[in-house]
Structure formats: C-alpha cells, structure tokens
Specification:
The chain is of the alpha+beta class. It contains five helices and six strands; from the N terminus they run αβββαββαααβ. It has a six-stranded antiparallel beta barrel. The relative contact order is 0.18. The mean pLDDT is 95.
Length: 147
C-alpha cells in the first residue's frame, strides 16, 4: 500500500471512529480510538486511529514498529489525547517498562483478529511472555495516564 493510500485509509478510519458511538474498552481487549499527538517537527496536531489496550485497569498503546511517526511523536512529547465520539481524554503517554509491557502485548495479540496487524509483530499471537520480552526492543508500548 502506498503512502497516500495509507493516509486515506487512516483518515477514513479516524472519521468513522469519531462518528460512531464508542465501543467500551474491555479488560484484556482493545477499543478503537483516535490518538491526538503533537507532530515532533511540525508542531501540528496529528490524528492516528489506534487500538487502546486495557489491562489491569490501565490503558496502553502498542506498536510493532517503534519507528512509526506516532511513536516518535509521543517520545518527543508525551502529552496527548485519546478521542472517540464521546470526547477526548487528555493523557500522558510514557513507555511502559518490560515487566508491564509484555503482558500488554500478549493481551493485544490475543484480542487482535486482523491478520495483517498480527503479521506486523515479530512474535506469533500465542507467544509466551518470555518470547515477547525478548522482542520488546522492536515493540513500542505506552502506558496512558490521565492528565
């Protein structure tokens, strides 16, 4: 898929997420939301449709690619918003330590049913926590704390 196709797909998904009633985030699963972060170079608000993972009463974002723009934007400025049709929650997004991140990745992989999304990870959907931990240098996990 070319860059314009990805941009168009993300824009359409963002619109859909913001227009449809928000599905509740369930423990051990994820809910589609829109990340509003500040572009590290432009300073403009960037919107990215993502799955927010819920585990042990906390919310997280997971990326199989730490070089993605939204990951680098959060690394540069952790102040962000998580938006749905119900509104926007102001959060601070910080990298989760390995002991916290591995179970989050495991929950995300078990809840995910989109084949291309699963294939982006360096571990299979049924990976053990040890296998996931061994690959955390190539997976970004952010804990979202309310501001």
């Amino acid at each position: 898929m070319s860059a314009p196709d990805v941009a168009a797909l993300n824009a359409a998904m963002t619109t859909r997420i913001l227009e449809q009633p928000a599905r509740p985030a369930v423990e051990g699963g994820y809910a589609l939301r829109v990340l509003r972060s500040t572009g590290r170079r432009s300073g403009r608000v960037r919107e990215t449709p993502l799955g927010v993972v819920c585990l042990h009463g906390r919310s997280y974002l997971v990326s199989p690619d730490p070089a993605r723009a939204w990951v680098r934007n959060l690394d540069a400025d952790p102040a962000a918003g998580i938006a749905s049709a119900d509104g926007t929650e102001a959060v601070t997004a910080r990298r989760a330590p390995a002991a916290e991140a591995a179970p989050v990745v495991s929950a995300y992989l078990r809840a995910m049913s989109v084949p291309w999304a699963l294939q982006a990870f360096p571990v299979p959907a049924d990976a053990s926590l040890e296998e996931i931990t061994a690959h955390l240098d190539t997976i970004a996990v952010f804990r979202l704390d309310p501001r």
